[in-house]
Amino acid sequence: LSTYSVCEKMKVKTEYPNQTVVSHFFLEGLRFTAEHPSLFFLLFLLIYSITMMGNLLILITVGCDPQLRSPMYHFLGHLSFLDACLSTVTVPKVMAGLLTLDGKLISFEGCTIQLYCFHFLASTECFLYTVMAYDRYLAICQPLHYPVAMNRRMCAGLAGITWATGAVHSAIHTSLTFHLPYCGPHHIAYFFCDIPPVLKLACADTTTNELVMLANIGIVAAGCLILIVISYVFIAAAVLRMHTAEGRQRACSTCTAHLTVVLLYYMPPVCIYLQPSSSGVGAGAPAVFYTIVTPMLNPFIYTLRNKEVKRALRRLLWPGSPESPARGPPQ
């Protein structure tokens, strides 16, 4: 990415010899933090600490507890790692900007890397939610076929595909965004390098980029959401056919947690990417929610709604406490 950025800047110098090539950007940050930067620094530090500890705890629990070996927990481990990384891409830079003005500066290469990493992790998480919905569909609608269909090799393959697809998806957007010339101004009216606010600074027409962004992100997000909805239509029908209240409760406990995080993930980006012209300092609230708050909430959502995870956490944190083993097959 760094070599790519250098090549692009050399290209701009050649095509625009009388214009200054941008070597860095200035992140204007969040408007509501300007009056009390120290207070918001402590708030973001607390959120970031909780996010890292919560997701790390989920990762350790899933990795160490032998009773959490089902595919659902395999994918939950990937989700926790993604949430920790997604928060790390944005929050430390936000906190640096709250301390000093120099903390708001980001190099052209750094902006390129941040934009790529953000969309890589965010799109990978989008694909992972779809895979998790498919996993729940197989577990509830086809329980006899589930152990064969979702074996260890299939789990690893699906997880690998989500990461690879996210990397390609982000590479397309990053290359299209920084293929444009940037020759000033350099103030990004946002708290991190994202496509809509960066495109505003380009010294060329960005209509094609905006159309590609809306089409690509829209098709990917809508496609994943449609697959998730279809999975849950079949799941709801299967749950209604269950004869025992315990079976319904076990199915709902895992599905409601997944549905909750899906809603938290999808709603804010829709507000941002369907209206790219509105992405400015004042439009940062939806982005703060799904880039900073949602990664913090996900461990709590899965822990509070899942008895297996709560039991495993108790076994991990208090090894000597009496804890009966989970009955029945994994959720």
Q: SSE layout and pairings?
A:
Blueprint: H1 2-15, E1 24-27, H2 37-64, H3 71-99, E2 105-107, H4 108-141, H5 146-149, H6 152-178, E3 187-188, H7 195-199, H8 207-240, H9 245-273, H10 284-305, H11 307-317
Parallel strand pairs: 1-3
Antiparallel strand pairs: 1-2
Transmembrane segments: 39-63, 75-101, 113-134, 155-172, 217-239, 251-267, 287-305
Protein name: Olfactory receptor family 10 subfamily S member 1
Keywords: Cell membrane, G-protein coupled receptor, Membrane, Olfaction, Receptor, Sensory transduction, Transducer, Transmembrane, Transmembrane helix
Describe the structure.
The protein is mostly helical. The chain has a single domain, classed as Rhodopsin 7-helix transmembrane proteins (Rhopdopsin 7-helix transmembrane proteins), CATH 1.20.1070. 72% of the residues lie in helices and 3% in strands. It has a three-stranded mixed sheet. Helix 4 runs antiparallel to helix 6 and helix 4 packs parallel to helix 8. The longest helix is centred in the middle third of the chain and has 34 residues. The two termini are 41 Å apart. The C terminus is likely disordered.
Brief summary:
This protein is mainly α and 331 residues long.
Tell me the distance between the termini: 41 Å
Shape: globular
Fraction of residues in helices?
Answer: over 70%
Taken in chain order, the helices and strands follow as: HEHHEHHHEHHHHH
**CATH fourth-tier homologous superfamily:** Rhodopsin 7-helix transmembrane proteins
Total number of strands: 3
Tell me the number of structural domains. Answer: 1
What is the radius of gyration computed over CA atoms, rounded to a whole number of angstroms? Answer: 22 Å
Looking at CATH, which topology would you report? Answer: Rhopdopsin 7-helix transmembrane proteins
Mean pLDDT: 82
